[in-house]
Amino acid sequence: MPDGLTYLGQKCVLEFLEANKRIHISSRCPRLKQIDHGVPFHINTLAFHKDWIIVNKFGYHLREEEESDPHDLRNQLVEGDVLIGSRIAIWSRKYPKIGFYNNLRQVADRRVPERNSKIMETHVVIKKMYEILFGERRHIWVDRLKFSLQEPTILRLPVGFNVRTRKLDSGQLNPDYFICLLHPSSFPLHELTLKSPEKLNQPIVLSSAKLIIHEFISFPQRLMENLMMLEHSNVTVVDSGYTPFDFYRVIEYWLNHRQGTSACFKWTATGGAELKMFVDGITSRFPAIIKTACDTSYNTFPNFNFISIPLNETSYIAIYGVRQALFFSTEIVMEAMDVGTFSPPHDLHHLKPLVPDYVGEKKINKKSCEIM
User: Fold this and answer.
1) Where are the domains of the chain?
2) Which domain of life is it from (predicted)?
3) What's residue 315's pLDDT?
């Protein structure tokens, strides 16, 4: 009968196990537990929430529940006490439970054991949970690290917690808070995602290869100025508002300064009515022209069209649609392009006409047509 895997074989298998399976297996095998913390730990997505942590698609949720306790210390009688009535009061107490979720579906629920006959405080349980998951791990590799937290808060991580990551999503918090958690090899970041950022001139922001900004709808004018003056070559701004008024603000700014920026702005129309409202709003407010793409690659997609707004002698504002997973939704993208070109960073088959029923006045000569 074979003796099983060698030490090196065990390390190799552990390294490439899915993170949650690895935690489950190594916690039940003393021999694997001894070598587990020294083997690189790979996670696709690691997300921290207030009472949640999600490792890949598996979530650990800490919550408090109440139970009645007739043996509460408040019911104990000592010398001099007088019990009035034949029944004692029923007191309630809170205790922590951990729910385990797979793709947001609860698969198990465990009450946290008491320590020395005492219920553990919630913050102590969170600290202990993080220590079990990440404590003493010397090499943690995370593709996307996300924080969905609000100030003020305390992130109760184990001592020495440090990760290597390519993509950081700091949510509403200043990304500088998390520099101490990142290994130096993580910089410059491949992608940084922010939500309504107050500052954009930080080194961690300017050095990232790609910058994504959410909740642009809540930007005050001063932050709008900061965004427009941001010297970054790859910026995507996602507007999640119900109306595209922030598109209008950007267009007005670009037209007033007769110059665009490297930022790409996105807004999702959730139906045909919203898409029509957007197109009508743009064409009524600005000198917009509906154009048909004349690149020969569009032969299989002849009905594609987009909106063009002249900016200056060398550039124009291009607004075009991109198909979404939901058939009735359209992602509207706006960016500045050079005159005579139309080069969206999307596969041509994913593009979608902004005006489905639009028919050009003339048949376009694909060899000689000019795009504004």
Assistant:
1) 1-39
2) Eukaryota
3) 93
